[in-house]
Amino acid sequence: MNGESTLPQRYAALLARIESACLASDRAVDSVRLLAVSKTFDASAVLSVARLGQTAFGESYLQEALVKIDACLASGADIAFEWHFIGPIQSNKTRPIAERFDWVQSVDREKIARRLAEQRPAGLEPLQVCLQVNVSGETSKSGCTPEEALPLARIIATLPTLRLRGVMAIPAPEDDPARQREQFSRVRSIYTDLQAAGFDLDTLSIGMSDDLESAIAQGSTMVRVGSALFGRRPPNPIAP
Ligand SMILES: *Cc1c(COP(=O)(O)O)cnc(C)c1O
């Protein structure tokens, strides 16, 4: 990525990458959504991207996200923001997530699902959720195991204030393209197995700045992109 490029140039380049990846896999260019991952970048960066037409933003650090959501609202910009929580969830932090976000992609255990469901305010749409699955084994701690996905999906289906949309994963980075493909394809199997079990899902959330082409080739319907859009993040991100 060229550090001299502007945000509008990077946004256009990113949309072009997504479009070429769709065409390369004989997929419709509108079959993949972009989630702009704005963690560590401030509300003015979010508003700049929003003015280019982007409405879905992903955040991983709760306190930082709440400040940013408030600032975006206070800006008075006439933008229908869609906020996605994509970070690890501590069970004592579920209430503001349930109250302020539209989506939560990092649901990986029953306790979190039940708390989010209980705390979702009655007047709001159901919280749109993805199960986070861990297909890389011990190396990353977030995400349920592949075996836990179906029982967890069945629990979520009983909670009317949650709506299960799909599966999210952050496979361990792989230099070997074949191994990377294999990890994405394992996530896709979990997704299609859930569909085969009767769940009405439309979101396979895989692919980030460095691997979105490979994820789209493996069926991704939502890529979560931070650094390729906003620029490089500080090495020590703000604590959760
Ligand atoms: C930070 C983050 C991303 C974006 O990563 P980039 O490599 O900067 O595109 C995507 N998904 C999750 C869950 C993240 O935490």
How many alpha or pi helices?
Answer: 9
CATH hierarchy: architecture: Alpha-Beta Barrel
Low-confidence stretches: none
**Radius of gyration over all CA atoms, rounded:** 17 Å
Compute the average pLDDT. 94
Q: DSSP strand (E) fraction? A: 15-25%
The name CATH uses for the topology is: TIM Barrel
Show the helix and strand layout.
Elements: H1 7-24, E1 33-37, H2 43-50, E2 56-59, H3 62-74, E3 82-85, H4 94-100, E4 103-107, H5 110-119, E5 127-132, H6 146-157, E6 162-168, H7 177-196, E7 203-205, H8 212-217, E8 222-225, H9 227-230
Parallel strand pairs: 1-2, 1-8, 2-3, 3-4, 4-5, 5-6, 6-7
Helix pairs in contact: 2-3, 4-5, 6-7
The protein binds pyridoxal-5'-phosphate.
Summarize the structure.
The chain is built from nine helices and eight strands.
Describe the structure.
The protein has an eight-stranded parallel beta sheet. The chain has one domain (7-230): TIM Barrel. It is globular and about 45 Å long. α2 packs across α3. The mean pLDDT is 94. It is α/β, with parallel strands linked by helices. The chain has helices at residues 7-24, 43-50, 62-74, 94-100, 110-119, 146-157, 177-196, 212-217, 227-230, and strands at residues 33-37, 56-59, 82-85, 103-107, 127-132, 162-168, 203-205, 222-225. The chain contains nine helices and eight strands. Bound molecules: pyridoxal-5'-phosphate. Residues 37, 39, 60, 86, 170, 208-210, 224-228 line the site of pyridoxal-5'-phosphate (PLP).
Brief descriptors of the model:
single chain; about 240 residues; alpha/beta; TIM Barrel; 9 helices; 8 strands; globular; binds pyridoxal-5'-phosphate
